[in-house]
Amino acid sequence: METIRRLSVIIAMLLPIVAYGGRPVTSAFSIEAGASRISDTYLSPLPYHGWHTGLDYERFQAMRHNPERCIMRLNINATLDRTLNPAGNAAMWQAGVDASWAMMWRWTLRWTPGLRVAAGGMADLDAGALYLSRNGNNPVSARAAVTLGLTAMATWSTRIGRLPVTVRYQPSMPIIGACFSPAYGELYYEMALGNRSGLVHVAWPGNRFVIKNLLTADLRFGATALRIGYSGKFISGKINDIVTRYASHSVTVGVSGEWISLDPRGRNRSSTPDISAYY
Asked: What pLDDT score does 270 carry?
């Protein structure tokens, strides 16, 4: 009897999991274009202004252990900027990759149909470099940071006429981690010769403040949606008396959709509805 009781408890715990339908993957590919402002006193005391471009990949999926509440987000963003000094006679290039993985807990607001909110933690890797050709001896300023932070999301599903639309706002902010920074005036040639002490620093909002904002609207034309929106990123840091400022504002355009993985063994799927992590 004790064995049967234990089995019944285990089955009762598993029922909420096996009763769920599929967990479609929501993927989106976007391009972004806009303007940026860059200031890095390691290379120049002057601010540079110019254009900003980027490619973005985003993936959402409900987690197997609690698909109604727990959702995962993976985001990879590659950017390229070209900016000019106030006189317009020198160009500074920026290239970078920002990859983040987040786990969020989701709530449905009963009093507002179609509105869901989610919040959780994220791990982020941000790496890149600035290039200023007029600095003959030291034309490059590298950046790298590995951080843990917070992210939140609000999605609202509605209709414009007969067209389903999902609007999303998502801010993200690193809180604690480690980042790379040379000493003021230290050459990368010196680092190559072995002067590598003091290059890694604790990163927190007091010396490296970063916030990313994303506002999108998915116009769902059948199985594929057209994504339009706004993307913004702001970085403000001061380490070893090197002041760094970066701000970009861009329009994003892309496509998104949901995909279900089929069982190659041909087993029947559950008749219960699929649980989307996004729509």
From this structure: 53
The pLDDT of residue 18:
35
pLDDT at 260: 76
Query: Quick check: 6 pLDDT over 70?
Result: no
Angstrom distance (rounded) from CA 182 to CA 111: 52
Contact 225, 232 (CB under 8 A): no
Is the overall model pTM greater than 0.90, yes or no?
no
- Assign domain 2-259 to its CATH superfamily: OPCA outer membrane adhesin/invasin (2.40.128.100)
